[in-house]
Design goal:
This protein is an alpha+beta fold and 286 residues long.
Amino acid sequence: MKIIRPSRILLTVVLLFMFLVSISGQAFAQVTGRDVVNEALKYEGNRVVMDSAVGVQYIYNKVGIRLPGTLDTLSRQGTLVRKGETLRLGDIVFFGTSSSNLIAAGIFVGNNQFIISHPPYNTIRVMSLSSSEPARYYLGARRIINTSQTTQPTVSNIRERVIQAGLKYLGTPYEFNSNRSSTATFDCSDFTRRAYYDATGKWIPGNSRTQAAFVRENGKVTSNWRNLKRGDLMFFADPTTGRIDHVAIYMGDEHILHATRTNGVNVQRMNSYYNTRFTFGGNILD
């Protein structure tokens, strides 16, 4: 009888484990661009602690795809998407004066927007490719995930899920610029972002103005809040400046669910204060 020494068995197991680990991160077909975007949007508003290339690397690593962490090596990954060609969720967008002088990279999140971790900005931002600086320096993109994006299954009671997700945080204290990774405190946009994520599994942008832009570009909007449905988002502005500074979830029957400085997460009836500040509301659920 041939005896296999323990050291050989151990070596075989170790080699098999290393093989499985090496292929697990390359299962591109099981990862979608939406997965990349959802992961990236979790960090919007966080302080920048890494440059843009490492930021992209970090997000892709979180969804199981290993990428290098420099602009030069990132720009050679995947397939080229030329400037002017249609971008897909998760594409890596590059900025610079030329292909040999790259400045930064971000991740395309849809609606002509990208998210970027760029030290001069101090915080991780969602920006429009059409805004002046990105438009001036945009060079093109690289596509890492080539699979088509699949349509997310329809959830018939998604509106009720949003409401219930929000209600479970009733009484949570208010904190301006709250930690987006925690549910211990909320500001208004952190609360709506969390409720929508809990209900749909998708992150929406991280402050009231970027949420408003997202709804305008992706949903159906109305300037009459009485036309809104349960679960729709409502946006309010400073009457002097017109700047959006608050967001809430419409509950129906003239009630809103939101986070305020005085009461934390609470349900409140629409009143003259909010009536005069209401700007528009929108539906991104149907």
